[in-house]
Specification:
It is built from six helices and 19 strands. Helix content is 24%, strand content 35%. The mean pLDDT is 88. The chain is α+β, with helices and mostly antiparallel strands. Helix 2 packs across helix 6.
Length: 301
């Protein structure tokens, strides 16, 4: 029996319980934007899929993900996720790969610019913080949330051709060490996967509403220095960092899709303040980072 949820302004009908998502009233599957089903898949992907990484294959309309001892997953047409679980796998592990890379593929297939970052609401606009895994994106989101700002999305940020960020679902993912630094008690929280000390931190005042214009994008970086530094990126240096910080950029296949991705990234670059934040590798606090970003936003509204 399907359960019904909302994420990224899409209605999701799912065979898998997804407590991370916002529950919506039951509707007909015919009106659902995305379906998540449990079902059998072949042992190997079809020959028309190109291998794009370890355990990953794709073409312009399909994405095959194989996670040893967890599941095989086929994502198709921007609307269908078929999950073939391994024996005795836990549902938390299934959800981790459905809500992360599988939804990332859905959003790519729906012709959105998908960024690897976190989104925070500031008034009627929003800020996106991007960077590689471990750069501190979720830590910053938790820092902004603690100041009373609303979180739109964690990790996967879809942006429309008009430069609007779609809200995701109400959670932030934090490692135990980061939770300790932020004085967050993890004892009542659910782990992302049973073997990981990484937790789903619910966002109690998550943003629920229409997509918001992206006004500021900050690229997180770290090096051996004594203070937090913010440097604006100008001219031709603006486009590549956006492309470099897309989520699973290898899913963009074919000349038409690549041209559209380039066009959307260029249009976004023309509308935003884009800056690189360089922080010390140690000896700084998330409050310092939040203060610096808010000060920069005040100077560049």
């Amino acid at each position: 029996m399907s359960r019904y949820y909302s994420a990224y302004n899409l209605t999701v009908a799912s065979d898998i319980a997804m407590p991370e998502l916002t529950t919506v009233q039951p509707v007909s599957d015919l009106t659902s934007d995305v379906t998540v089903r449990i079902g059998a898949l072949p042992e190997k992907p079809s020959d028309d899929l190109e291998q794009i990484g370890p355990f990953r294959w794709a073409n312009q309309t399909a994405y095959w993900l194989e996670i040893p001892e967890v599941a095989r997953i086929l994502v198709q047409n921007g609307s269908d996720i078929l999950v073939d679980p391994a024996p005795d796998v836990d549902e938390a592990s299934l959800r981790a790969f459905v809500l992360g890379p599988s939804f990332g593929a859905i959003l790519h297939q729906r012709n959105l610019l998908v960024m690897h970052g976190n989104t925070i609401r500031l008034g009627d606009k929003c800020i996106i913080c991007v960077g590689p895994s471990g750069a501190g994106k979720s830590t910053l989101s938790a820092g902004f949330q603690r100041r009373g700002y609303q979180v739109l999305a964690d990790d996967v940020v879809p942006i429309t051709a008009e430069g609007l960020a779609l809200p995701g679902f109400p959670r932030i993912k934090l490692w135990q060490e980061t939770a300790d630094q932020l004085e967050i008690d993890t004892s009542p929280l659910q782990r992302i996967r049973p073997q990981l000390f990484k937790y789903n931190v619910p966002v109690t005042d998550a943003y629920v509403g229409p997509a918001l214009p992206v006004r500021w994008v900050y690229i997180l970086n770290s090096e051996h220095r004594d203070d937090v530094r913010i440097d604006e990126l100008r001219g031709m240096a603006r486009l590549q960092p956006i492309l470099d910080n897309t989520y699973s950029g290898r899913l963009v296949l074919g000349p038409a899709a690549k041209a559209q991705q380039l066009r959307m990234a260029s249009q976004l670059a023309a509308k935003i303040r884009l800056a690189r934040i360089t922080r010390p590798r140690g000896g700084f606090t998330v409050d310092t980072m939040v203060d610096k970003i808010l000060a920069d936003i005040a100077e560049h509204p």
